């Protein structure tokens, strides 16, 4: 059960209405009782709302630009079209969906405290948002396991592009199945605050006891955070030990350095994922376990801040690529036309076909082979 749902149900027991927030990415639900409305809610202060709007807007802007840029450069430059980069593109697509399908609606829901988007989106958005989050976590696992296979077990045969496409399709299908309860067990309707005031709500509607919602919430937490983090830690610890031992006995070489550098980048991605999502999941787990945090002052604001921290992971990855990988950095600079690292070479090869120039920008640079 969502944090907001338990908050509302606990505070409004006499209403007999099991109000649940509209999606897996939302912050809090509508406050439904006259006494609760008297509580301090800092998210309704103008200054706080301005800060929240700025925070969400920055995340959306950087997330859309960064992830779109990752997708574009992999499409444009053949040197970046590797299996690992195809998985990174899949991760970028999922993060892009979170930026566009989750954050704007969550912001409006937080500021207004009610569902403003109609019945159809009530059923579609939660499932789409859950789908995107699951795709992100599963893709991180796929990348880690693929690196583990090739480095720890010294398998030189790389995954084919056809197999990569199959894995990506399976990732989306499994993610869709995991997110489907968010669309199936849902209800859209009107909730009366008083005889003269009502609000539109988009709620989870679980059959039987509300315990079913709590079980799904805890299961989703394990699948979205606990299990992926455990798999990633296992894989990258073994990868790092293998690379360390290899450097000890064989010495440094270009190929080993490329692998070490790429592994460091991917490991940093996992660390960012773990750190950014930890406060959000810890807070949600505390509420699911029946904690008194539901009665904390500024509960809604605190939950919103944790949600913002979690969503920062959707735009950090492209920054890591540009910072820690030469090929991505050169490709980003080339697309943005901020830097022309091979302009002199381009002049010397003036007579060649112009449509090959874009590929040479990355092909000529010192490869890191992500």
UniProtKB/TrEMBL annotation:
It comes from Cottoperca gobio. This is Neuropeptide Y receptor type 2. It is found in: Cell membrane. It is a multi-pass membrane protein. Its main location: membrane. Residues 66-321 form the G-protein coupled receptors family 1 profile domain. Belongs to the G-protein coupled receptor 1 family. The gene is npy2r. One of its GO terms (molecular function) is neuropeptide Y receptor activity. Gene3D superfamilies: Rhodopsin 7-helix transmembrane proteins.
């Amino acid at each position: 059960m969502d944090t907001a749902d338990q908050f509302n149900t606990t505070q409004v027991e006499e209403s007999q209405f099991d109000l649940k927030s509209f999606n897996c990415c939302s912050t809090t639900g509508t406050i439904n009782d006259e006494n609760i409305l008297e509580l301090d809610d800092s998210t309704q202060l103008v200054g706080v709302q301005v800060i929240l709007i700025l925070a969400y807007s920055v995340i959306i802007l950087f997330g859309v630009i960064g992830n779109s840029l990752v997708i574009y450069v992999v499409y444009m430059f053949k040197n970046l079209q590797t299996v690992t980069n195809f998985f990174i593109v899949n991760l970028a697509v999922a993060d892009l969906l979170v930026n566009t399908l989750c954050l704007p609606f969550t912001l409006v829901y937080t500021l207004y405290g009610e569902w403003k988007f109609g019945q159809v989106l009530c059923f579609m958005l939660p499932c789409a948002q859950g789908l995107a989050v699951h795709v992100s976590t599963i893709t991180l696992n796929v990348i880690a396991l693929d690196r583990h296979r090739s480095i720890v077990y010294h398998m030189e045969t790389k995954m084919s592009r056809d197999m990569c496409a199959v894995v990506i399709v399976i990732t989306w299908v499994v993610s869709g199945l995991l997110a489907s309860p968010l669309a199936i067990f849902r209800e859209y309707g009107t909730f009366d605050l008083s005889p003269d005031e009502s609000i539109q709500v988009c709620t989870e509607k679980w059959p039987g006891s509300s315990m079913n919602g709590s079980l799904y919430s805890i299961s989703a937490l394990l699948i979205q955070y606990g299990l992926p983090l455990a798999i990633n830690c296992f894989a990258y610890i073994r990868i790092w030990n293998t690379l360390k031992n290899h450097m000890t006995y064989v010495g440094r070489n270009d190929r080993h350095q490329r692998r070490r550098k790429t592994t460091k980048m991917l490991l940093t991605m996992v660390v960012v994922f773990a750190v950014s999502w930890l406060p959000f999941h810890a807070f949600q787990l505390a509420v699911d376990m029946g904690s008194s945090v539901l009665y904390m002052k500024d509960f809604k604001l605190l939950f919103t801040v944790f949600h913002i921290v979690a969503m920062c992971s959707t735009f950090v990855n492209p920054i890591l690529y540009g910072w820690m990988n030469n090929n991505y950095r050169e490709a980003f600079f080339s697309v943005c036309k901020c830097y022309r690292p091979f302009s002199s070479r381009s002049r010397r090869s003036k007579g060649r076909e112009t449509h090959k120039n874009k590929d040479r920008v990355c092909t000529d640079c010192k490869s890191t082979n992500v």
